[in-house]
Amino acid sequence: MSRWELGPILRAMTRNKVGAILIALQIAVTMTIIVNAAYIIVERHTMMQRDSGLDEQNSFYLTTTGFGADFEPKRVITEDLDLIRRTPGVVDAIQINAIPISGGGWSMSLTTETGDDADDVNTANYMTDEHGSNALDFNIIAGSDFVASDVRWRERNQTDWPDKALVTKALAESLFPESPWQESVGKTVYIAEDEPVIITGIIDKLQAPWIGWSNLEHAMITPEYLVSESTRYFIRTEPGQRDRLMAELESTLADKYPNRIIRDVTTLTDTRERSYRQHSAMITILTTVMFLLTLVTAVGIVGLTSFNVNRRKKQIGTRRALGATQGAIIRYFMLENLLISAGGLLLGVVLTIALNMALIEWFSITALDWFYIPIGVVVLWVVGQLAVLGPALRASRVPPAIATRTV
Amino acid sequence: MFSYYLKLSLKSIRKNPYLSGLMMIAIALGIGASMTTITVNYLMSSNPIPHKSEQLYYVQLDSWSPHFPAQEPNEPPDQMTWRDANNLMDAQQAFRQTAMASSGAVIEPPDRDNKPFMASLRLNFADFFPMFDAPFLYGRAWEYADDKAGNYVAVISKETNDRVFGGENSVGRPITIGGQQFTVTGVLDDWVLVPRFYDVTTGAFKGTEDVYIPFAMKELMQLPNGGNTNCWKSPEGEGFEAFLQSECVNYQMWVELPTQADKNAYMAFLNAYAEEQKALGRFPRPLNNRLSDVMTWMENQEVVADDAQMMMWMAFLFLLVCLLNTIGLLLSKFATRTGDIALRRAIGSPRSAIFSQYVMESALIGVIGGLLGLGLALLGLQGIKQLYGSFVSDLVELDLTMVMLAIALSIVASILAGCYPAWRACSVPPASNLKTQ
Predict the structure, then answer these.
(1) Are residues B290 and B275 in the same domain?
(2) Are residues B87 and B139 both part of a single domain?
(3) Which of A105, A139, B90, B96 could be B127's S-S partner, Cβ–Cβ 3.0 to 4.6 Å?
């Protein structure tokens, strides 16, 4: 025990309580922020990694809006799709009512029985034809895909639904939690409480348009084209062909039928970037805050220790003159910091949990995983030790002769 | 005395340039982070129409399902049905009132070289313009009579006027919107609303619309729904008319009620209306109608993003760390000065003089740090603009209030930080310190 000079360190600390308390508090608050920020960063990062199910690198979409009295939506849509699908480099193309992860779309509630009391499950609704699986890059893992004869035209303001639908595996599991998802094929669900739709196939993965939605993995596809002046085409291309085709198809479509506006020609990668921008910004900001905060704390420790070293020059010299090695001097300052940090980090653990609880209460944050706390403790301990190393080394170089001089 | 202390402080700061610099940078970082986040929060929560925000009320009627509320715990829907919007407009019970909707349509400029383009539409009543202080560059709003008669009249934005008419005074001229010919009655001047409070259903920080046309056009032109459409039961029957008559909500309603008595009267009217509808078999829920003034409605709609608030609290904690840092450094710094202090005390300075001098020094460090912090806040706001893209550009301006706040915050913070070290400094016992010298 005496070898580590704990007694003198503690006694010296009690002579400068306030200084030690200040550093401890600083470390405690720093830990609180850093650990919570790190947790939020990891949470947002995980969120951004979620797979939409699309071939995002090679897909884009565009909106075309026809105008004028003689505009015939059905003819134009049929001819457009035919033209796009025949264009070299295009894997497939569809008309679709909404784009996954884009932020705008349709949703409906489904029930497994009729009547008002039935529990409902919300889902995103996509409407497209039998090319959906190829264009949106999903697989039918049970049941069967649509065929051309399933597809109908949904007239303007038509409110009924086709009698067939594909649903995602996640949606099937939410609808029928008691049975395995494979068995959902052939079952009937009710849309808007009373209209029956039969599930004819289960698809592996397709996300809803709203990334912040709790039912992001719930999607339902019905086989239909929409009769509308304003319509969206989703196009999947062969690798490397996307950018060329975006420009090419925009002008081909405009030339083919001039009485329309083609707009919002957008890649899926841009859409993802835009949808998740808030989260990537948060990650950047919190990372900067973590970095600056650690720096401020470390520099503060360097500054305070340097001052203590200067103040105690004479004592250090005396100890050296009395036979203390350079290592002993370094150890003294390192140990001192270790003890102060320990106090600060202990408080830090409590504050970290308190802040996390406050964030849960006020904002939509989930509870911190326990292992963030020990990691935070270790990291800040190491930072403290590194910060103190410089001044401690300087202290160890104080010549013993200084003991004989007055300051 | 003030200038003498100032001189002493400057001298002392120059004596320990690294340590003083460190303190200034710490304060600058803390102030910079706090000011960046405070500014974003301040602008997000700013009052877009201060002089009458307490007279404008957003109307909510609880027309929702008997089995569940539109929103937990028991919130009425945030929009209204077509039927209710028109009934309330027909009643004309408020000083001013407008129901509204958003949509979009193609505008075809008259000359062939000018390409048609997609424009955002707001469908509203004549009162919309005076209610929300829409600034007119040319002409004026249409009349309520136009609303009643279903006249094809439009007010267009400055940008649309520049695009279609080359910026000329276009009042009285025709404009083709959605294949239909309208007459321009007025051109708006630049109109920036932060937040765009009158419709926050699809985000509070969007721009004002390109074109404004009467609400009745929704039905006459069968315009598509903009924003969010929510239904608790499917429309009965097919077609556009069935949708309009359904229980689906897609419309907003604002009223202007100058006095509390007007508000009470309007609330009574709304409740009577709901009872009337109950008699017709609608409104199955208990009475739950709301009138929210502008700021209450902004709060209800959570216009200030969670992330922005969270960042602000984190920035305050950051500032706290920077202040703890500064207190520690000041303590150490003043501790080296015990000799001077003892001497000055011995030759007759009162404690208060020592105290003020050292508080002065911390305040000076605070002011310099605060000014640096303002610079950092400007950088931080630029960074936010970069990260979040153009849609926040109205949210990242430092105004005079914010600059004053930053300076005040840094002075207060640094004086608070300086108090304890200064108190310690002035309680140095002169005799014992002089002896050891």
Answers:
(1) yes
(2) yes
(3) B96
